[in-house]
Amino acid sequence: MTMGLLRAVALNTFREAVRDRVFYNLLLFAVLLVGTSLIIGQLAAGQDVKIIKDLGLAASLLFGVGIAVFLGIQLVAREVERRSVHATLAKPVSRPIFLLGKYVGLLLTLGVNITVMAVALFAVLAVYQSVTPAGVQATWTAPALDPRLLIALGLIYVELAVVTGVALLFSTYSSALLSATFTTAIWVAGHFVGDLRTVEQIGASGATVWVARLVSWVLPNLALFDVKAEVVHGLPVPAGQVVAAVGYGVAYGAAMWLIAVAVFQRRDFK
C-alpha cells in the first residue's frame, strides 16, 4: 500500500510539473541548440563539434537547474497555498511518503528533460558528422557521437537530484522567493567547495580555516559531477570517479529528504 501511495503522489507531481514548464524548457533548448549550430558553422573547422558539445552540456545543466529550483521550491509551498495539503495528509499518506513522492515526481520530470536534451544534442552532432568532410573529422580529439557524453549527462542528472533535494528542504519551511534564492546560492557555492577546503593555502589561518572547512563539508560538493571538460576533449573518465560521484549524490539527496521530513513533521497545518 505504501508503494501505491508513493507512486500516486509521484505521478501526480510529474503530471503537474509537465503541465507547468517542462515542454517550454525543451522547446527553448532545441531552439538554442539549433541556433548555436548555425552560428558555430562559421567558426574554424575542427572546433565546431567541441563547441556544440560544450554548449549542449552547459545548456542541459542550466536548464535543468532552472527546473529543479523553480519547480522544486513549489513542491510543498504550492500545496500549502492551495490548502490541498490538508486533503492529502488527511488520507493515509504519511508526511515522509508525501515528501518522497514529491521528490521522486520531480526526479522523473528531470529525467524526461535530460533524455530529450540528450536526444537533441546527439541529433545535432549526427548532422554535423554527416556533413563534415572526413579529413576534418580526423582532427577531432573525440568522435562527434561520443558515448562518454552520456556519462556527463548522467552526472548532470545526479547533480540536479542533489539540487532538487536542497530545494525540497527549503520548500518545507520557507517562502518561494527565499527558497529559490537559497537554493541557487547553494548551487553556485557548491562548485567552489574544493577551494574552501584548501583555503589555508592562500594564507588564511585560525578560525577562518575552520569555518571554511565546516562550510565545505555542509555544502554539496557539486564539482564532483563536472566532467564536461574531460568528455569534450576526449579525456578518459575513470569508472571509480563516476561511481563515487553517484554514491555521493544519492547519499546527499537522501540526507536532504530526511532533514526535510524532520522539518515537515513539525509543521502544523490546522
Describe this entry's structure for a reader.
The chain has 270 residues and is mainly alpha-helical. The chain has helices at residues 2-40, 48-72, 74-82, 84-90, 95-131, 134-137, 148-171, 176-190, 193-197, 207-218, 228-232, 239-265. α2 runs parallel beside α7 (148-171) and α5 packs antiparallel against α12 (239-265). It is globular. 33% of the residues are buried.
Short key terms for the protein model shown above:
about 270 residues; mainly alpha; about 75% helix; globular
Shape from CA axes? globular
N-to-C SSE series? HHHHHHHHHHHH
Cα distance spanning the termini: 26 Å
Mean pLDDT: 80
The portion of residues assigned to helices is over 70%
Report low-confidence residues grouped into runs of 5 or more. Answer: none
Task: Please report the total strand number as a whole number.
Answer: 0
Strand content: under 5%
Radius of gyration based on Cα positions: 21 Å
The number of helical segments is: 12
Oligomeric state of the chains?
single chain
Structural class estimated from helices and strands: mainly alpha
Largest sheet: none
Explain the layout of strands and helices.
Blueprint: H1 2-40, H2 48-72, H3 74-82, H4 84-90, H5 95-131, H6 134-137, H7 148-171, H8 176-190, H9 193-197, H10 207-218, H11 228-232, H12 239-265
